[in-house]
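Chapter summary example.
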Amino acid sequence: MSMSNAIDELVTKTFLEYWGFRQLPFPKVAQPDNTFTDSRIEDALKRLMQLLSSREIGVVVGEAGTGKSTLLDILLNRVSNTRYRVIHLPIPQAKPRELYRAIAAAVGVNTSWFGADALKVVDLLTYSYLESGRPNLVLIDEAHVLTPACLNELRLLTNATVKHEAVITLVLLGQPSLASTLKLPAMIPLAQRIGAWVALGGLSEDEAMLYLDWQLKAAGRQADIFSPGAKMAIFRCSGGVPRMINRLALECLNEGCLEGAKVITEELFAHVCKNLGPHLTN
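The structure predicted for these 282 residues follows.
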């Protein structure tokens, strides 16, 4: 073990022991089978699960940190691979040909010899559907980077049918610029096929309070740490955005550990805010 890793482990152990945690709270990556599910996420999941029956196009838009990745992870955890062929593209391609190659690779086709065009991808997904009996669920994360040309190509893929049933259910997840692109006149044919539109905002005040409490309990701490005033300050400063709440709360806990505080007060939170970087305070 390197010296830096040993120091990191010692610091982490000291932090956990000080606050009485079993594990680090407010993790960057949530576990899909053990995560806080608020009304926004539950409503979005219901809409997306309905898409699997209607086999239409779904769109999820939200600012960075609002929970799109968490929503996607929970959806992937709930969707059975025995019922659906899941094609997840976490890094979308900006050119149609590369997009087709990525889809083909996800299905298991050697892209070195695969001719990347819409017809061949449709044939590939149709064959996959007929062979396995599993509809194709295509999930594209960071879809705001897709060009209008790529989005129109995806529309062509969703036209594929077998015995009057769509071969593909498509879900696009991205930042609000995706919504702006889909509102362009050239996108009308695609927009008319959207069966579920989900806009993720921040947590409400009540759910933000519950979220803070849940994170502490999930980490192994039963007693509260944040004063009511500190909780309210974190909510207001974060706008209810889960990633921002995580960052602000963790910074407070780190500072509290260093200062020997037993409770995170509004005053301590204000002190922490003075030393935060850009885009972390309003």
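To summarize the output: The chain has a mean pLDDT of 90.
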